[in-house]
Amino acid sequence: DPEKVKKKKFWWFTNSPTVIVMVGLPARGKTYISKKLARYLNWIGVNTAVFNLGQYRREAVQTYKNYEFFRPDNEEAMKIRRNCASNALTDIGAYFTKEQGQVAVFDATNTTRERRGLILSFAKEKGYKVFFVESVCDDPDIIEQNIMQVKLSSPDYENCDKEEALEDFLKRIECYKMTYVPLDEEKDRHLSYIKIFNVGSRYLVNRVQDHIQSRIVYYLMNIHVTPRSIYLSRHGESDLNLLGRIGGDSGLSTRGQMYASALAAFVQSQSIRDLKVWTSHMKRTIQTAEALGVPYEQWKALNEIDAGMCEEMTYEEIQGHHPEEFALRDQDKYRYRYPKGESYEDMVHRLEPVIMELERQENVLVICHQAVMRCLLAYFLDKSADELPYLRCPLHTVLKLTPVAYGCKVESIFLNVQAVNTHREKPPNVDINRKTEDALQTVPEHV
Amino acid sequence: MCVCVCVFEDCPFRFENCKKQHGVDDNKKSSVILVAVVLCPQSCPLRRDREQVGVAAVLRTRICTSRPETTSVLRRDAAMRGSKRCRRDRPVCMTNCPTLIVMVGLPARGKTYISKKLTRYLNWIGVPTKEFNVGQYRRECLKIYKNFEFFRPDNEEGLKIRRQCALSALNDVRQYLCMEGGQVAVFDATNTTRERRDTITRFAEQNGFKVFFVESVCEDPDVIAENIVQVKLGSPDYIDCNTEEAVADFMKRIKCYENSYQPLDEGLDRELSYIKIMDVGRRYLVNRVLDHIQSRIVYYLMNIHITPRSIYLCRHGESDLNVRGRIGGDSGLTSRGKEYAKSLGHFIQEQNIKDLKVWTSQMKRTIQTAEALAVPYEQWKALNEIDAGVCEEMMYEEIQEHFPLEFALRDQDKYRYRYPKGESYEDLVQRLEPVIMELERQENVLVICHQAVMRCLLAYFLDKSAEELPYLKCPLHTVLKLTPVAYGCKVESIFLNVEAVNTHRDKPENVDISRPTEEALLTVPAHQ
């Protein structure tokens, strides 16, 4: 009986959907947090979507004139804004019921008790859980930095020059300040929320209801906005790479060792402050790190995907011995688990602590493996489960990720040491009865 | 000649495997190639020193000291990590400086409960932690407790003794963190005045420790009363008192502290790192979390609760491979195993447990066991049995025949030993940590798992050391009911009256790698 026996795969699936409600004056990082949180939750497998009220408003009003729209005595505008909020809530309902959404982030100022009350009634009626995330900041430098980074380039200010835009936006903030009622320790003691003060120097957490809220709090307490870069790279070319064999624990080839030296030179040239270096437990990443001559940390979690029965085989051999498995993998590369091995889905799971620590850290160089790097990259670049297993992570190339505005800037630096290609595209024919040539069509060349 | 690989002088494989594995050109004399120690084969007994502890592992690149070029690198590495030389038998942790956790709060606010629980958790995940309870120092100093008057703020003599005890405890903290390889010390005392906390902060600064305050604030009289009944009445202080006397005295004791209590203040203490726990976890204020270990501590503290509940641990029913004396694999239940599953179903019914959650692994035998309960259950990959790698589905006799060296090494250090292409108990603890965290969040849970997994979970709840853990007895067809009580856990063992094969192999006397076969197989349980 499928109803009786609920076989949930991951413990963080909550029975009722959760609405995360952002609270805070403009330029307090609400959208930054919304997007980052959604990216994290989606990556760990919790279907999450962001509903940004500003976008609804832009669709309703088409052209933004100036801050007067946000004056609390602007009746007409108030009506439009209330409508937008209703529409957004309706869409949230649809997301949960029709699109299997589990978490919706309602990204708006939600600065009045009245507006929050509206959301709470809506959620109560439908049986959704509500968790508030309030960002409080009174540091004028942070606010200005914020405005410069993301507001000036907003569609609202397309035709304004910087000073005009800044001035208008500050007046906009004043409009909200008049009616802002922050979450109150006393009056709101029955609500579930986290209050973030000054970009994370202090947090107030109230009534965490369940696992997903606990994870959200943990995540929010680990992220920061200090500028830094994350460098992702694979190990140098290995002996098994050359032979076209997957997995295993081989050492570096000559070219691989050359890459390691080149990597050392690159790292030096970048003059990175307090760089941390992480590797896996496998020889090839450790040998690569050794060439850098700096302390490094080994993470078992960064080990390459375990190919189980197919360890150290070539794709030709896999096709020869396990043609059905080979086809099944092509059908759903993200969820497919090698017999006695792992899937990409398993890997995301085991990489979660690595991601959490990457969020805590500042400048880090991660020397890892193809599948691992794809998972990490998918997290930073918000790639879906379908795209993830086909992301290009060639050998001897460093990807430098720098958080900027709401996303990540990526620079790809090839260190000029040739290496074999290990990227196998999805072949057009994924049928289990396909011919051998069709199966091996996209296998990269090897010795 | 190439530089040596395995840096441990007494590793038996040092010179042989080195040359084979890193394949460095013998003519490259000039460059010092520091090839990682992990190149040593699985069977090297010293390998374990380099394995992972906690979330991340740090490779201690100790280098052959025979070459002068290498020692300078070692010096540079040592300098980068701080002046402490890593000890051979313990890997260096991620955080370079030890952490001093300082409890803050009036009496009966759960400080000792939190200290002990936190210490237990940190030790289980591999962070050496010890708690220092100032009350114990006071009892040793005073011998006999008369009454609350000792704690009166105007009792000069009392204050002197209490200050001495605190300093004595801090001394022991220093000893533990600097000399005995401790990583975290929990200073369990009221620490209710700013003055006392400043003393501690200064002490920590002088010694290079990070400080993290954990304050417990509670005004609910019911919670406080329950607290007093559960743990204070049984305290050595009140051994000769009846309940009323003890409660009255203790309430007066609390009063003595109340007047001088200066809670951590959002304004005045904004530079400190702390978590304020309010009303037993309803609300938290977290300020300036500095590093990973503090972040983990905060996460843990935010997930524990004191709602009464029970955790039921048991293994799957007897499996086909069990009966044949084979380890690992993914076999189904025998007929006795199925009978057990049915009995388990009845047992659960009888116990009448409120909102019971049932968890299994993703292996057939636990799933089949859960199926018989006819209630919803959740599968956790993390609850899968330890991966025995190349020894999967072998009998102990076969392991002894094919891998006698591995078999002996495992007996020498069962906790850290990793099966080739498999896992160690140490790895298991790591992968079970999210399960433990979720068990802390939940209330009534039945976990249907496997022998090694159950040993790890049990070791967490019963505070067993890494040495004891792999030999904890977890027989088939027996449910362990764990109920948190006072500062620990009550255990009830319930055998469900269905016979099963014994799968427990004790540590044999002879663990030498050259031991004869009979001695290796001495403790193997009987099987078909």
What's the end-to-end separation of chain B, in Å?
Answer: 54 Å
Q: Roughly how many Å is the radius of gyration of chain A?
A: 25 Å
Specify the biggest β-sheet of chain A.
6 strands, mixed
Report the order of strands and helices of chain B: HEHEHEHHEHEHHEEHEHHEHEHHHEHEEH
The tally of strands of chain A reads: 12
Structural class of chain B: alpha/beta
Q: Count of helices of chain A?
A: 15
- Which regions of chain B are unreliable across 5 or more consecutive residues at pLDDT < 50? 1-9, 15-42, 45-95
Task: Please provide the ordered H/E string of secondary-structure elements of chain A.
Answer: EHEHHEHEHHEEHEHHEHEHHHEHEEH
Poorly predicted parts of chain A: 1-12
How much is the average pLDDT of chain A? 92
Summarize the structure in words:
- The complex is a heterodimer of chains A (447) and B (528).
- Chain A has 447 residues and is of the alpha/beta class.
- Chain A has 15 helices and twelve strands.
- Chain A has helices spanning 30-43, 53-61, 75-98, 113-126, 140-151, 162-177, 211-220, 239-242, 254-270, 283-290, 315-321, 323-331, 344-360, 370-381, 436-439, and strands at residues 18-23, 48-52, 103-107, 129-136, 193-197, 202-206, 230-234, 276-279, 297-298, 364-368, 397-404, 407-414.
- In chain A, a hairpin with a 4-residue loop joins strand 5 and strand 6 (202-206).
- Chain B is an alpha/beta fold and 528 residues long.
- Chain B has helices at residues 14-22, 68-80, 111-124, 134-142, 156-179, 194-207, 221-232, 243-258, 292-301, 320-323, 335-351, 364-371, 396-402, 404-412, 425-441, 451-461, 517-520; strands at residues 57-58, 99-104, 129-133, 184-188, 210-217, 274-278, 283-287, 311-315, 357-360, 378-379, 445-449, 478-485, 488-495.
- In chain B, the strands form two sheets. A six-stranded mixed sheet of chain B has the order 3-4-2-5-6-7, sandwiched between helices.
- In chain B, a hairpin with a 2-residue loop joins strand 12 and strand 13.
- In chain B, 41% of the residues are buried.
- Residues 1-9, 15-42 and 45-95 of chain B have low confidence and may be disordered.
- Chains A and B meet through strand 6, helix 7, helix 10, strand 9 and helix 13 of A and strand 1, helix 2, strand 7, helix 9 and strand 10 of B.
